[in-house]
Every structure is written in structure tokens, then in C-alpha cells.
Amino acid sequence: SAGLRHERGMPNLRYQAGISEMDHKYDDSKDKISLKEEAKDDIYDSKSYSRVDYKDMHMYGSIDHGTDHSRISRKKGKRRSKKDQEGRNFRCDHCEKTYLSYPALYTHKKLKHLEKQSGEPGQIRRFVRPSKPYDPQKNPTSDEFFLTPDKAGGPIDPLTFFSSVVKEDLEMEPKHFRLYSFLKVFSILDGFASEDTETLIPKRDYDNLTLHDKEKCMSCDEVFCLYLREVSRMVNPLTYKAVLKFVLLYRECINEFGWNKQAQDELGERTVEELRKRANFHEYSICNNAEHLPEVSNELVVELAENRRRSFGLTRDEIIDLTRNFCHWLFVNQFTTRKLRVDDEPPYINSFN
């Protein structure tokens, strides 16, 4: 029982010792405070004053042996008033504001009066690369792309330059070419040609097409000609000739690579052999809708645009801009669900959303 009482008494002994130590520390701190108060008149004669004491002196006044030192005895933590001009010996030449130190005055001048000194806005200068202003006329996906002075014009006949371009670049008879019948329809509808018995006009409103017409009824060739019709309404003949060459080039590309693209996309629905059989008897642009047209845009730029003889005289930059414009037009008008993303490095047109 004695040992048990001894263990129970231990915490009380430590607790009492702790109180005595705390009291001793508290008494020492009081002594230090009282000594500081008593030695305030001799503080400037000592070379070993602490950093806290120097900070107090700097806050409440500069070190001056001939001035009244009673202001240093202000209570620590009391903020100075803006109207208190005591110790503000650094004055701004521009706005007459005063500061306690030169660094504060220098920062004030740099932030507030930099414009008066160097003619630049009053803010910290940073090295930032200036961004190029956005020009919608240079963006191929904007509505203003064909409205620049060197492109704007129209309306013109959708059949303009068709015969000459097909003969020179494709070496084919224009009237036997698949696109001729659709362009003849649009030429009649726009009032540039008269109706004849050989031309069959589809019974659909091209200005208000339904989603069923776009997905089930219209082939790539018909969509190509509809795009040419839209462009012919706003461009001059020279620009239209370049767009016509581009469309013929795009048609060559989709007929060369379209079946493989569709086989990769629809492998679960149709077998490769079935698609190959159809490819042997039909051109892709005749019997398929425009859903997969954007997928051959990269082949158009890489394979055909680099070949001068196959590019119909168009430059690579012209082909890239017209490809972006055409594929954007397809997406906006719901002929396809594929949307292009253009990269700065090859391959330039690479992905679809």
C-alpha cells in the first residue's frame, strides 16, 4: 500500500514542481520588463540593443540624440495615423506624399509615376510575347473567309470553268462527268440556265434540307456540288475556279481512300470483302453520304498536295485553307459528325471529334 501511495503521489509532486517553475519564469519576465522600463534613457548609449528595440525606434521615429525620446515609449502595436507626419522625411516630387524610408518612396514612384518618367503605363513591366490580333478574314472556318476584297464577288453560274477544268486536269468529257448533272440542276435553279428534258431535278428543297435528306438521300457528289453552289454566290470567278479545282481534287481523294476509311470505321457492320466488292464496281462518292469526307483530309494534304501534277496547280496552303473551310461547312450543316482539329506540324489535319 505504501508503494501504491508513492506512485499516486508522484504526479502531484511533478505538478507542484511545474507550478513553481512557471511562477519563476513569470517573475523573471516581469524583472526584464521592469529593467527595460528603467533603462529607457540609456538605450542610445548602448551598442548592443536588440533588433526588436531597433524596429520600435524605426517605427516611432528616427534615431536622433537631440530629440525627445519619449515617443519611443509608445505602446507596441499601436498603429500610426496617416495624418501623423512625425518622421516622414522622404517626400515625393510628383504628388507631395511623404514616407518614412527611401525604399517606400522608391516603390511608390515605380508604381504610381512610371508613366511620367518613361511614358509607359504605371505598372510593373513584364516580358510578355504580344498576341497576334484575331483576323476573321484569315480564318478559313469563319463566315468572312470568302468576303475579302481579293475573293468577294458573285453570284456566278456554278458551271463556270467546269468544262475547261475537267478537260485540262481530268482529261474527261465534261458532260459524262458525274458532277455535271448536279451543277446543271443548280444552274437552272439559280436562273443561269433554262430547263431541258435531259436534266432531272431532285424533288427536295436545297435551302431547307431535312436530316433524312442529308444522311440517306444525298451522296458525296451531290454535297460537293451544293458546296460549290454556296461558294458561287459570294466569290469572284477566279476564286471560284480555285474552289472548283479543290472540289475535284477532294473527290479524287475520297474515291481513292474512302473505302478503306469506311472499312476501318464500320468493320463490325460490314465485312472488308463486301466493301471491296462494292469498291470494284462503284466510286465511293457516288453511293455514300458525306459522313466520312473529313477523314481523308490528311491524305489530301500529304499525298496529293505534295504532288504538283496531281494537285491541279493549287498550293499546299490553299488546299489546307479550303479543306478547313469545306469540312467546317460539312459539320455546321450537319452533313457529318466529324470535326477537324488542325495541328501546326505534319500531319496538319489529323484528328476528328
Automatic annotation (TrEMBL):
Compositional bias ranges of the Basic residues kind: 72-82
GO molecular function annotation: zinc ion binding
Domain C2H2-type: 90-118
InterPro entries for the chain: Znf_C2H2_type (IPR013087)
Region (Disordered): 60-87, 114-140
Domain of life: Eukaryota
Residues forming coiled coils: none
Record's keyword terms, sorted: Metal-binding, Zinc, Zinc-finger
Official protein name in the record: C2H2-type domain-containing protein
